Amino acid sequence: MAAENIDDVVDGLAGIVREAGRAGDRVGYFAALYRQVTVEVRTAIHGGLFDDGARMDRFDTHFGNRYFEAYDAWRRDRSGPRCWRKAFGLLDDADTVIVQHLILGVNAHINLDLAIAAARTSPGEAIHALRRDFLLINDILARVALAVQDSVGALSPLLSLLDQVGARTDERILDFSVRRSREEAWYNAVLLAGQNEQEREATIERLDIRAAVLARLVARPGGLVRPALQLIRSTESDDVPAVITHLDNAVE
């Protein structure tokens, strides 16, 4: 699928959520989170929050299409960016907890896709005028992600164990930091915006490799986190459609 505007992105994500709910597919976990982010961004555009609403519509469309391209590639032949393959590859893993699925998606979308979408929206020197709106859209992404993570508590009664082993504090979940990744995404967006095609390809390859490494750390953490995750998983709901519905209503 390919979106032409932010309304198409919302509709595309809603379609994935609906189909995942019917099929009991965990891909609906992150899609539900992302749909709510996009709805919030669209509301902010209509409310005049951004300096350039039309530009942010294009930005969000590029951003959404990165996810759709990765999703379609995985469904087609298990291809696509490394970090997305790591995320999608665990959808059938019964030992992966809900919050891990969410963070694996957030990792790929922030650490790879966000900078690429920004550079495509505002190439060259135009990237600098995007900074304020970029930071605003990042804030929306982080706020919704945290709201959804908090809602997971109703589905994961022992999620607080991650706090006790130091793996979940504020915006830090396991080995993934939303705040640090948002800051790095802007740096990489400026870098990509000023590069030629060959340089961009090399930078995107580097970003994908790094995001895939982070995905492995989130998927298979060491130390006390692993047994804590096993306990959390033993008490989580196994009703995938119900979990998707719960997550899809976490913000609204």
UniProtKB/TrEMBL annotation:
<dbReference type="InterPro" id="IPR046037">
    <property type="entry name" value="DUF5995"/>
</dbReference>
<dbReference type="Pfam" id="PF19458">
    <property type="entry name" value="DUF5995"/>
</dbReference>
<protein>
    <submittedName>
        <fullName>Uncharacterized protein</fullName>
    </submittedName>
</protein>
